[in-house]
Amino acid sequence: MTKGELVEAVMKSTEMSRDEVGKSVEAITSAIINAVRNRDKLTVVGFGTFVASERKKREGKNPRTGEPITIPAARVPKFSAGKAFKDRVNPKPEVKAEKPKPAESKKDKPGPKKKKG
């Protein structure tokens, strides 16, 4: 889904105009980017968490020449989906409740054998 398709989807589910929805989507994405840029953790309950993560410098290879290169350290954005989001993406199948079995009476249960004597 593109940003334009997102705007269309929000327009259909609300009574907002294209311009209003476009400005809202832009404001939300800017707020998320600014929070992550400022190293803030942004949590939208039921949706997920956006956070900046530090990636250490590491060794790699130039794919063209195969020569070893050093990949510099970087701050990268990460998103972790919330439980409600995950549950809606991957719903659990409904479990049918089993009918309870009729309780056994004491007469039906085998008991200890009695000794004659």
Low-confidence stretches: none
Count of beta strands: 5
Mean pLDDT: 88
Oligomeric state of this protein: single chain
CATH superfamily of the largest domain: IHF-like DNA-binding proteins
Beta percentage is 15-25%
Order of strands side by side in the largest beta sheet?
1-2-5
- Termini Cα gap: 85 Å
Radius of gyration: 30 Å
CATH class term of the largest domain: Few Secondary Structures
Question: Might you state the CATH topology name of the largest domain?
Answer: HU Protein, Chain A
Q: Please outline the major beta sheet.
A: 3 strands, antiparallel
Report the structural category. alpha+beta
Helix share bin? 25-40%
Account of the 3D structure:
The protein is an alpha+beta fold. Helix content is 32%, strand content 23%. It has 2 domains: 1-38; 40-91, IHF-like DNA-binding proteins (HU Protein, Chain A). The chain contains 3 helices and 5 strands. A 3-stranded antiparallel sheet has the order 1-2-5. Strand 3 (58-61) and strand 4 form a beta hairpin. It is flat and about 90 Å long. The model has no long low-confidence stretch (mean pLDDT 88).
Key descriptive features of the protein:
32% helix, alpha+beta, 3 helices, HU Protein, Chain A, 5 strands, three-stranded antiparallel beta sheet, 2 domains, 117 residues, two-stranded antiparallel sheet
